[in-house]
Write a structure and sequence with these properties.
homodimer, 460 residues, alpha/beta, 16 strands
Chain lengths: 460, 460
Amino acid sequence: MPEDWSSSVDLHLAVDAAGGRRAGLERALRAAIAAGRLAPGGALPSTRALAAELGYSRGTVTAAYDQLTAEGHLVTVPGSGTRVATAAAPASAPALPDAPGEPAHDLRPGRPDLSAFPTAAWLRSTRRVLASAPPGAHALGDPRGRPELRAALAGYLGRARGVRADPARIVITSGYAQALGLVAAVLRDAGTSAIAMEEPGHFFHRAIVGRAGLGVVPLPVDGEGARPEGLDRAGAAVLTPAHQYPSGATLRPDRRRAFAAWARDTGALIVEDDYDGEFRYDRQPVGALQGMAPDHVAYGGTASKTLAPALRLAWLVLPAHLVEPFAEAKLLADAHTQSLAQLVLADLIGGHAYDRHVRASRLRYRRRRDLLVETLRARAPHVRVQGVAAGLHALVLLPPGGPDEDEIMDRAASRDLALMPLRAHWHDPADRPQGFIIGYSTPLASAYKPALDALCAVLA
Amino acid sequence: MPEDWSSSVDLHLAVDAAGGRRAGLERALRAAIAAGRLAPGGALPSTRALAAELGYSRGTVTAAYDQLTAEGHLVTVPGSGTRVATAAAPASAPALPDAPGEPAHDLRPGRPDLSAFPTAAWLRSTRRVLASAPPGAHALGDPRGRPELRAALAGYLGRARGVRADPARIVITSGYAQALGLVAAVLRDAGTSAIAMEEPGHFFHRAIVGRAGLGVVPLPVDGEGARPEGLDRAGAAVLTPAHQYPSGATLRPDRRRAFAAWARDTGALIVEDDYDGEFRYDRQPVGALQGMAPDHVAYGGTASKTLAPALRLAWLVLPAHLVEPFAEAKLLADAHTQSLAQLVLADLIGGHAYDRHVRASRLRYRRRRDLLVETLRARAPHVRVQGVAAGLHALVLLPPGGPDEDEIMDRAASRDLALMPLRAHWHDPADRPQGFIIGYSTPLASAYKPALDALCAVLA
């Protein structure tokens, strides 16, 4: 019986046989099917015909056909030879654009100077950890995270932030975002329906809490931090006591006591977001609020601002009764935060390299803070600068009557300067002060002065 | 006016002044308050009295009192000097026990031989990556993950697994558990109420899907994989086509086509869990089901079995229309999977070290598979062994009438042998076959034969 040569005559099979003829033929057949050059339902050449055409053995072609049949791409129809399985051609997938490139000047808050990442120390610790860690370190362990890091943090946080931290009550999370999301889920499961959050405050964090199904009650903020008002409508509150985000205010002591008393009296939970607590320039860092009420405060810290955000290393020190439900939620979320990074951080803390790096960073960012304040005072004296006593960002407020956030954003765009406007941080933006959150830690070392120049140019 | 010396006379302040007198005094005061030795509301010595007592300058003591006042631990009451703030003593936190130690013999499935982790290659790649990555690599980028890894995976998965992978449709996740949870959330948001899951199947994955609010429809499984039955009650299905977990069956080709046709006809989503697809011993690996219907299959892979579970490196290749909602869910979950590990894996793939490691692993586990089969045949011929053609585990079925799972678990416990019974993998365990999922990849190299000895002893 004459074979149907038509498809094999027209079929271009560009077989790359570098890795073997059979594997190459399989790849070529798959590619041809994928591209539609072998149409669904269409006949393939007989094994003998194709073998002759390609100069291969018949066994090679038969094996290739068998493999594609096992994968479901081909079917053998009795009396009809081998055909391509019937399947609709795949829709062309719209390619989503990759993230846009980095701007020339970047003063958005949220990260340290990434060129200052302690590469040598990280590498040294990585080598040490890989050489000495037990094989079990590569396995998923306790969802609370590596005991080595929890122990190191208990000591470090007690010493550096006044946190009452028992390693058994620490959970390592993949960034603070995850910690907040899991706390919100645990609260919701326990019956909480609304959480009080500072206004202005981090919009991303409101989105996380909203996705977990909790309502948000706005907490007013002034020059001395959040005001303990309207708390009766909430079962929990998220605070940034060391350096309010974004205003930069430090929470006044009597308000700390009032929030702690509310939590104790009502059984509510305070989440303390201590995102940049190690950075205080004019005096010693203010200790954590958690130290006053460890049974009612979940203390959150992170390596995002001391090391790098992309490490996804953060921790939550929990009241005893919340450890088990939180660990359960963590287990079902991603089981465990990456172990190697945890062990490296534990090693950096234990060898004091972490402390040294934080101290050096504090000096570096204090100088940047000083330059920002001087520069704005000299070249944009009409703006008001707040929150410079600590942290890695300052709030620059625009005077009423001058150019507003939109106009300044336009000017900034034309200079390829990335800025974060205050606008989105209000729960309700109508009729609010306008300004920018200036992340003076963000630019790489050599890029800082040019960024300040660009900022002054758009503010003037 | 005479100071109140009483508290200072009784007060034992063990001041460790190694780091400076003021800091040491602050630490000692905090510790005394925390331990209750300075009672709430109790008076502190005047600054002059305490300074005289300790031999410090008055300024040092005043500064320490000021710091603790700023932190809210102390209050200055006009006319009464400085007192400890009123606060209830913290409840003693019950210490949760850390995870129990490793068993002497471990044949539970879920991980490769951790002593075979490619430490040298990982370290080399880490050094290379840290030396050459742009500073932006330390920042949180596109929630889909590093473009370097997505591009490397697109090539690798196309080549090794027949996956149709466009880098724009790949999202890197912190483990497969996270990928499954996020897909479940996206499906639920889009109106899906139930998902079909293989029975027997991974109980942890059922828990993840349940927590996301989806119901589970059981998919029957036999010697040729899942059967496409009862699908009309589900809007999605999770399959393990290359090596069914836990039975080890490979999904038959016509069933692959049936599942793909169902997904195309109804718009349902198939989640393909390709957790050990690189490990096939008796012939070439079977290509991914995703290759047949890339618009209807979300293909999930992981480095957990090729490298280590604690790396939390996994990936999902999504149909085009799901990329944006999934990336949004990922962003709100933990923003981004740890970058450094992503870049290291991309480097390992690019330099072919990953392929070499997988090939070496395949050889190593094939030998273990052979030894398992021979050993059981010789020393426990009454059990049936399934699923040995691929993967890192086999299913050992117990004959009816003999000792059941409970009895064997007791025997195993007395020998410190950890086993995974089949029991919990049934959605409904009543009246089901009994057996154990033997993870022959788990023991460290020198521990494998002793583990097999222990297994034979308990099965006999």
